Amino acid sequence: MPPRRDIKKVLIIGSGPIVIGQACEFDYSGTQACKALKKLDYEVVLVNSNPATIMTDPEMADMTYIEPLNVETLREIIEKERPDAILPNLGGQTGLNLSSELYRKGILDAFNVKVIGVNIDAIERGEDRIAFKETMNRLGIEMPRSRPAYTVEEAEGIAEELGYPVVVRPAYTLGGTGGGLVYNREELQVVASRGIAASMIGQILIEESVLGWEELELEVVRDAKNQMITVCFIENVDPMGVHTGDSYCTAPMLTISEELQERLQKHSYDIVEAIQVIGGTNVQFAHDPDTGRVVVIEINPRTSRSSALASKATGFPIAMISAMLAVGLTLDEIPYWKEGTLDKYRPSGDYVVVKFARWAFEKFPGSEDALGTQMRAVGEVMSIGKTYKEAFQKAVRSLEINRYGLGFAKDFHQKTAEELLKLLGRPTSERQFILYEALRKGVPVEELHQRTRIKRWFLEQMKELVDLEEEILRFKGKPLPDDLLIRAKKDGFADRYLAGLTGAGERDIRKRRTALGVVHCWEPVPVSGVEDAAYYYSTYNGRDLAPATGKRKVIVLGGGPNRIGQGIEFDYCCVHAAFALRDEGIESIMINCNPETVSTDYDTANRLYFEPLTVEDVLAIYEKEKPEGVIVQFGGQTPLNIAGELAAEGVRILGTSPETIDLAEDRDRFRNMMEKLGIPEPKSGMASTFEEALEIAGRIGYPLIVRPSYVLGGRGMEIVYDEDMLRRYLARAVEVTPERPILIDKFLENAIESETDAISDGSDVFLPAVMEHIELAGIHSGDSACVIPPISIPARHLDTLSEYTRRIALELGVVGLMNIQYAIADDVVYILEANPRASRTVPLVSKVCNISMARIATRLMLGKKLPELNLKSKPIPHFGVKEAVFPFNMFPEVDPVLGPEMRSTGEVLGLADSFGLAFYKAEEAASQTLPVSGTVLITVSDMDKKAVVEVARVFTALGFKVRATQGTADFLASRGIPTEPILKMHEGRPNITDAIKNKEIQLVINTPSGRLSQHDDSYIRKTAIKYKIPYITTAAAAVAASKGIAAIQRGHGQVKSVQQYHREIG
Predict the structure, then answer these.
(1) What is the pLDDT of residues 190-227, one digit of tens each?
(2) pLDDT digit string (tens) for 888-922?
């Protein structure tokens, strides 16, 4: 069927900020959908609140709205844009839930908007646990025994009936939010109440446990003719009990019989036909290998994290095809490289794909490294190899956790077999590494299978790697025999890992194997649905099928797996580098291993290598492709960590040199440069011993900010107020960076923090924007809200910031991008740090100021000069407020306070004509909607009491009732502000917790009492999160919130597209 012509304009809802369970795979799917629909001549309207995405770039859709994702905003946009159709299944759970709500409230009918791709009752049948169960009963497909509950008491009764353990699954949530596996009544009470709070409709399912069964997923695509194909069969190596987002998995299924795969496929087809989804659907099954029983766990009638993985694993762009099918095309009209058209598609690669998750437990002190049914991973890598062993080992070195193989991780190799078995008692992020050492210690495969329920085949494969490694270790200090080196490389052992095992240098291993003819070969993954496209993976077990072209070309190094401190913003820069190279007529070559990203889409660069970002893998591609150079400054810390070694091997680095990047990290050399340039820095020192640290602290004076050198995302950074705290930090810090010193700076209290992003060609500097942080210095810049243009920095300081930035960029010889952070204290502008590379603010500045920074920087790296580009500084007539988004709801045991170590997973942007309104919209977009009336609870530490007086006064004037704990209440009363006292938890009942539970409080302003306090006050913040009450933990953010509420009381303003905001800049 030709595409529908009763539709001209399509609305796509994005998935919002990056959170655990919903990451940049939806930027990838939304971007693909925009491209597909525009190619078919549809007008596209896109709504998303996440500024770090490619999809929210103004050229991706015809109209782009960076607005909070809620019904009121969507209603306004629909009324203004009048789309003919809405495509709900490409924006993750957020897009699906919002579309359902718009339908239920009659908004879609009122404006005559058709739903395409998946109809609304299909969403209900797939997402509502009761409706889904009824559909499965009708089809005769078994599910785990279960019953829905709306109260904790109901849940207790059902659990008694089913028998513990049971699984709690909230309806309409993502990443298993609020759910969990519970073993007793007490655990059930906690998880059931959390799950009911997390569910959009207050519904949870209490389900029999299928713990330990095999977890198997199918990615299925259906069209309007009811033609169905299976894109990918995914085998989760971790059994049921671990969320699929945390599960280690493979494609294709490696241990599942053809007969069972056919059974699962038939069930999947029956389900998607009954639910009537058009496009991609993910279906999850559990299989009991002992009895053969198969049950369906759930379906996602939308593109998902698994569909991004399935797309990249097979070369089948599910989101693109789903968008085409949604507007009426059918599979038999779309090309397939193998057999004509897509209705004949079968998964067919002769390679193995492995997905390995990346976690961030170390960012959340107090969180337990334990994997369950609620997702904890913040990112993932995908590797492709000719064999399972090769793909497995590639995945490990792709993770960037400083491990190049499975052995000798942490101190596991020093533990006894009994200790290792104890550690395997429950799944953790270290499970594969512990298994490896347990096999080395002689624990039988059967015992490990019984303990973990991981299939024997995977454990046997691992045992073969252990046995080979033990053979290699016998040659420590001696040359490896040729046959052993060849076997090791074919089984995926990295050069660096072999160097560590044998005591040789990595370069020596590389030379040896090259002399033996053991070199990378590259094989293609052909792309379906388009004519003549492929991307490539390396193997030591094949032949080279990737002929290099003789054209001008440049390699762009990607950012690897998402993690806290290095997210989608860096992928954004890499994608723009590829676009800029293409515009300049230069072939772009992308190297990356993250399946969720736009950079690993088949058509972003001219050629994609799906490879780990290590010296071994990058160097092989460089030697094969012989490019003009490599861009390392866009992929965050990942490429920078290997830039020096690459340069030493003769690789030409484009733009700012690795030496300059190192200089900015070297405190002494940087301090000398600042002195030479006359730019003030907070007093600081560098200590490599305990005594040195105490001596520096005595000289500088407390408070101090201490951190290890060479880190991203403020890893291991803390503010220290006295010698006791410093001693505690130093005792722990050894684990952070063993061979690197500790940096100690004077902490500037009550300082306004600001940052600048600059573009330089080595002789000229252009400064698109100055950002002002809303939180004061001491909160990591990635976690602080910030505003463009600044709202309280005097003009003379803005001039100083611009001048200092220009001086530093020229002195360093920056070619490309640079980010500098400053603090303004006691009327002095101090420099805090300079990063001569892309920063996470690049997409933000690009969107707010209408300047494509990464593209311009790429052109400068190719030799262009700033005067040629004719850039002009223009006043920004609107305000953009970035707010960070945190995963504290996934870590309910962790105190949600902000500090110098970064903990946010994503960000949102509020755009408006006033600061107050922009701040309000940013909070709304971050699911922290500020109340316009009601009661505000104020309970602050002594050091914040003065700052909060004005806040309390403003809230009173805005018509709010103020409640405060005794100390704060007395202080406010002495300043003439009426408050109603409230008890803390240890002071009796009814207390703060009761008031929050009873919905008597609409906003919590609570600055932590700190470690010196006798009573822990984290329960206030944790309770606010659980009951979805907006909470604020800094006095500065409380001031901004009061301005936001005052603005919203005057009116919400009109929604405006990014394109319109940009036109107004002039």
Answers:
(1) 999 989 988 878 899 898 989 999 999 999 999 999 99
(2) 777 777 778 888 788 888 999 999 999 999 999 99
Q: Determine the Cα–Cα distance for residues 702 and 568; give it in Å rounded to an integer.
A: 36
DSSP-derived letter for residue 864 is -
In the predicted model, is pLDDT for residue 736 greater than 50? Answer: no
Asked if the model's pLDDT at residue 1014 lies above 70, the reply is: no
Q: Which residue has the tokens 């030709």?
A: 2
Helical (H) or strand (E) element with 446: helix 445-452
Cis omega (within 30 of 0) for bond into 789: yes
DSSP string, 549-585: PSS-EEEEE---S-BTTB-HHHHHHHHHHHHHHHHTT
Q: 749 vs 297, 702, 813, 968, CA distance in Å?
A: 52, 10, 32, 21
Tokens of 470: 């033990």
Give a three-class secondary structure readout of 990-1012.
Answer: CEHHHHHHCCCCCEEEECCCCCC
Task: Give the whole-angstrom CA distance, residue 155 versus residue 873.
Answer: 61
| Residue 398 and residue 560 in contact, taking contact as beta carbons nearer than 8 Å | yes
Two structure tokens written together for 45: 């309207």
Note every long-range contact of 690-699, with CB atoms under 8 Å and residues 24 or more positions apart, other chains counting: 690/730, 693/726, 693/730, 693/742, 693/744, 694/723, 694/726, 696/744, 697/723, 697/726, 697/744
Who contacts 265 (Cβ-Cβ below 8 Å, separation ≥6)? 218, 220, 230
Please state the φ and ψ torsions of residue 197, each to the nearest 5 degrees.
-65, -35
Q: CA–CA separation, 828 vs 446, rounded Å?
A: 67
**Could you give the CA distance from residue 657 to residue 647 in angstroms, rounded to a whole number?**
9
What are 416-440's pLDDT values in tens digits?
A: 999 999 999 999 999 999 999 999 9
Q: Which residues on adjacent β-strands are paired with residue 684?
A: 745
Distance CA 873, CA 767 (A): 8
Bridge partners, 383 (sequence order): 354
